[in-house]
């Protein structure tokens, strides 16, 4: 159905066609059935080097060096996990067990992870990151964002970002996760540190700056000061907003043209209208609601208002210890009012939008050849068969890695 000129230099690259695709999700309406997913039936994809150069019906696929038969399986863009917290040590099993048992548990929370992370070596932190990334890759995640936020000292935040930057370009400085326990009596001084010496040490290793704008963490004025300082240093803002209560986070995100407002659980009509009028993506994180038995975000309300929605894991050791985007897709369909098509789009193209990327999250000529093959004939099976390991192949930059 479509073709494009090969990118400069790609004439020397090895070409591969994946054919025998029952349903191809392109996320480009012009390439398929006109829907947002741009579905093509009985389809093929041609890869040269690390790029997609052709998509269309199998019968029209051009000649290539190599041929791979998908065997009637579905092919999707690789998942884009635009919100995770993977630089940490330790776990919070006791906290989770107490919460699920209905028992009071007052120890630690994020502070437990902060203490364990500070005590860990660089090698231990990186080994944990690599382990979680391999786990996510097996489930179809080909692009991920991750944050600091469990060190809360200048040295610990900077080293987390240095480690993360060895594995992804999507690195977020989150010194403003909570007020450091070292500054419990002087939160203003901690904001000064986050916007001063800590920012100086962390900015060279990050693309994004984030803040947890919530009661008990950082208020609207503090969040604005932190994000504005980061933007002045070349970091793009994103924000944890309106997770636990109504508040100023979403409005601030739109005001500052943040790439994403994440959680968006408690929203006023004015919040929804603001998101619909701006470029800020609403990133929903259903793993957090699942793991804490909290109220679900109303995805249907956002989608009906025309808000761009992303789905992500929020993988972290306290409130959402899952690296599975397929699991989050199933939750979004079952409990948040999304259709399977909407959930798959949000976990791919929506995640790309939350990172302001147009080279991932789609399978169209010129896009990066990041894709997954499902052991199922349709993407709908991700929600239809929750918990089943349906991802049978994962390709990243044109190379099969799973």
Q: What are its keywords?
A:
Urease, subunit C, domain 1; TIM Barrel; 402 residues; globular; 18 strands; eight-stranded mixed β-sheet; alpha/beta; disordered N terminus
Content-based structural category: alpha/beta
Proportion of strand residues: 15-25%
Corresponding CATH superfamily of the largest domain:
Metal-dependent hydrolases
- Main CATH class of the largest domain: Alpha Beta
Poorly predicted parts: 1-10
- What summary fits the major beta sheet? 8 strands, mixed
Number of strands: 18
Number of discrete domains: 2
Q: Report the CATH architecture of the largest domain.
A: Alpha-Beta Barrel
Q: What's the overall average pLDDT, rounded?
A: 96
Quote the CATH topology of the largest domain.
TIM Barrel
How far is it from the N-terminal to the C-terminal residue, by CA? 28 Å
In DSSP terms (H or I, runs of 4 or more residues), the helix count works out at 14
Shape: globular
Radius of gyration: 21 Å
- Percent of residues in helices: 25-40%
Strand order within the widest sheet? 1-4-3-2-5-16-17-18
SSE order and pairing:
Blueprint (H helix, E strand, L loop, with lengths): L1 E2 L11 E10 L15 E9 L2 E7 L8 E12 L1 E3 L11 H9 L8 H10 L2 H17 L2 E4 L1 E2 L6 H12 L5 E6 L10 H9 L1 H6 L5 E6 L6 H13 L3 E2 L1 E3 L7 H7 L4 E4 L5 H9 L3 E4 L1 H7 L6 H6 L4 E3 L13 H11 L4 H15 L16 E4 L6 H4 L6 E6 L2 E2 L2
Parallel strand pairs: 2-5, 6-7, 8-9, 9-10, 10-11, 10-12, 12-13, 13-14, 14-15
Antiparallel strand pairs: 1-4, 2-3, 3-4, 5-16, 16-17, 17-18
Helix pairs in contact: 3-4, 5-7, 12-13
Would you mind describing this structure in some detail?
- The protein has helices at residues 93-101, 110-119, 122-138, 154-165, 187-195, 197-202, 220-232, 249-255, 269-277, 286-292, 299-304, 325-335, 340-354, 381-384; strands spanning 2-3, 15-24, 40-48, 51-57, 66-77, 79-81, 141-144, 146-147, 171-176, 208-213, 236-237, 239-241, 260-263, 281-284, 309-311, 371-374, 391-396, 399-400.
- It has two domains: 2-78 and 361-400, Urease, subunit C, domain 1, CATH 2.30.40.10; 80-354, Alpha-Beta Barrel (TIM Barrel), CATH 3.20.20.
- Residues 1-10 have low confidence and may be disordered.
- The chain is of the alpha/beta class.
- Helix content is 34%, strand content 22%.
- The strands form three sheets. It has an eight-stranded mixed beta sheet with strand order 1-4-3-2-5-16-17-18, with no helix packed on it. Strands 8, 9, 10, 11, 12, 13, 14 and 15 form an eight-stranded parallel beta sheet that branches. It has a two-stranded parallel ribbon with strand order 6-7.
């Amino acid at each position: 159905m479509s073709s494009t000129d090969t990118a400069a230099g790609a004439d020397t690259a090895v070409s591969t066609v994946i054919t025998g695709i029952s349903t191809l999700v392109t996320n480009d309406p012009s390439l398929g059935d006109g829907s947002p997913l741009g579905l093509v039936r009985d389809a093929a994809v041609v890869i040269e080097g690390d790029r997609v150069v052709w998509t269309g019906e199998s019968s029209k696929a051009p000649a290539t060096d190599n041929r791979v038969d998908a065997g009637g399986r579905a092919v999707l863009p690789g998942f884009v996990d635009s919100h995770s917290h993977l630089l940490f040590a330790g776990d919070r099993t006791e906290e989770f067990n107490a919460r699920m048992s209905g028992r009071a548990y007052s120890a630690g929370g994020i502070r437990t992870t902060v203490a364990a992370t500070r005590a860990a070596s660089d090698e231990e932190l990186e080994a944990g990151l690599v382990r979680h990334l391999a786990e996510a890759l097996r489930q179809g995640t080909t692009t991920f964002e991750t944050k600091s936020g469990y060190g809360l000292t200048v040295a610990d935040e900077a080293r987390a970002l240095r480690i993360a930057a060895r594995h992804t370009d999507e690195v977020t400085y989150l010194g403003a996760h909570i007020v450091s326990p070292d500054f419990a009596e002087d939160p203003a001084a901690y904001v000064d540190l986050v916007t001063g010496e800590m920012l100086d040490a962390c900015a060279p290793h990050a693309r994004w700056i984030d803040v947890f704008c919530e009661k008990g963490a950082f208020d609207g004025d503090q969040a604005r000061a932190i994000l504005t300082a980061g933007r002045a240093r070349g970091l793009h803002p994103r924000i944890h907003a309106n997770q636990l209560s109504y508040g100023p986070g979403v409005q601030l995100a739109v005001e500052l043209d943040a790439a994403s407002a994440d959680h968006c659980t408690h929203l006023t009509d004015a919040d929804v209208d603001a998101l619909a009028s701006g470029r800020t993506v609403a990133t929903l994180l259903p793993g957090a609601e699942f793991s804490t038995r909290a109220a679900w975000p109303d995805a249907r309300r956002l989608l009906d208002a025309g808000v761009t929605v992303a789905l992500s894991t929020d993988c972290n050791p306290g409130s959402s210890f899952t690296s599975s985007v397929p699991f989050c897709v199933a939750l979004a369909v079952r409990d948040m009012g999304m259709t399977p098509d909407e959930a798959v789009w949000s976990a791919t193209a929506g995640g790309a939008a939350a990172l302001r990327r147009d080279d991932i999250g789609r399978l169209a000529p010129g896009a990066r050849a990041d894709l997954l093959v499902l052991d199922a004939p349709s993407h709908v099976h991700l929600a239809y068969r929750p918990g089943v390991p349906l991802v049978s192949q994962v390709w990243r930059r044109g190379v099969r890695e799973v």
